[in-house]
Amino acid sequence: HLATSLPLPSERDHLRPRIDLIAFMIDIKSKYSLKNVEASLAHVDASFFLGKVCFLVTGVGRVNYCSVEMNAIWKLGEVYCSPVLFCELELEGIRVATAQRLLRMLQICAGHVPGVSALSFGSLMRNSADD
Amino acid sequence: ENADPRRTAFLLHKQWTLYSVTPLYRFSNTRLRDYARLLSAFIAAEKQKGLAVEIGVELDIKVAVSSLPDLKGSDQDQAAILVQLSLRSPASSKNSEEKLIWLGWFCCVSGDDLSENVPEDFTCLPLFLANGAESYTSIVGSWFQKTFDCCFRRLAISPLNLSWMAAMWTGCKVDKTTSAMELVFSVPCLPQPLDISYAIHPEDAKALWDTVQKTPGEITQEEVDVFMDCLYSHFHRHFKIHLSATKLVKVSTAIASAHCDGIIKFLQSQYLTGVLMLLTELAISQIQ
């Protein structure tokens, strides 16, 4: 399900399936997208931050178009205890690889992978990022 | 700060295209006249090959390479090197007027980060500025690259760095009331390109910056963000457009103007070294 911001409209609440993973997309070329994500985060229930949230930073291929400071993004990942993924949507190979990664994360968050919980996977991702 | 403004006045009010240059191998300050002669021969040879700029008239291009010791940040910095290409009209005598057709200069202002980590035979002059026809820039650049085994790259300035410049330059004290501060934004994802120009009265901009900046002489990323956010929200209140979703492409203040394609114009000799220090830093980060 794609949304430009949160909260989702309440009219369709009863029709909506369970949400297993929220991927917040931040376009490094747009400061506005960061502000939008920051505002939307306030509408997310705390339980999601136990491994069911990730930040997807796009547009990283072109450093010269950078309007968002990297430190602000790292800090966001830290404050909300969620992993930060990077990708470049304009390159098909990276787009496909990122989609596969997200799909895998979704499978874990939905409980389809026995032995791995969303929380344990989340902390695994964060610890490897620190290295 | 000790630079004699008269000696560097010719650098003001010209449009300079910026490049980052990797350290030059076995470059010597004492051989500038030799370099001028060699470069002159190279240009003549390129002309023979048909890579000349003008057609028809026999052109006599005179090359001068000199040092600009005033443009330095610290004592460790290399003195700036200036290359001038002038046209000597063939029909006239030796003492006839020469027309300056191209200017380029290498400099390093407070480039300790780079110069400290570089082996002995290398000279650090990471910033190159060119004014004049691109074809000459290309020829001069090729000669330097061949002779000193260095690499030139266009220096692009990201929107993030441009907003730093906007904030820094707004805070600078200027003697008389000058031109408005102008920010130009390019709107993405449209079928036809659209640019938005946002002009702010310089006193209003300075007043805003003064309320944001906590420690004089120090600027933090947070302060730059607050400054820009204030300008963006003011614009949004009036025009319902989120400038933060667009790309900042040009910043113009009384001190200098900078474009994201790596084009700069210096407007105040008082702040020339200051701006060069920032550009040197950008050049160094592009090299590393």
Automatic annotation (TrEMBL), chain A:
Record keywords, A-Z: Centromere, Chromosome, Nucleus
Entry's Gene Ontology cellular component terms: chromosome, centromeric region; nucleus
Main localization (coarse): nucleus
UniProt superkingdom: Eukaryota
Annotated Gene3D superfamilies: P-loop containing nucleotide triphosphate hydrolases
InterPro entries in UniProt: Centromere_Cenp-M, P-loop_NTPase
Localization annotation: Chromosome, Centromere; Nucleus
PANTHER family in the cross-refs: CENTROMERE PROTEIN M
Name this protein carries in UniProt: Centromere protein M
Gene name of the record: Cenpm
From TrEMBL, chain B:
A cellular-component GO term for this protein: chromosome, centromeric region
Keywords: Centromere, Chromosome, Nucleus
Entry superkingdom: Eukaryota
Localisation: Chromosome, Centromere; Nucleus
Pfam families documented for this protein: CENP-L
Keyword Nucleus: yes
UniProt similarity note: Belongs to the CENP-L/IML3 family.
Protein name: Centromere protein L
Organism name: Ciconia maguari
Lineage of source species: Eukaryota, Metazoa, Chordata, Craniata, Vertebrata
Gene from which this protein is expressed: Cenpl
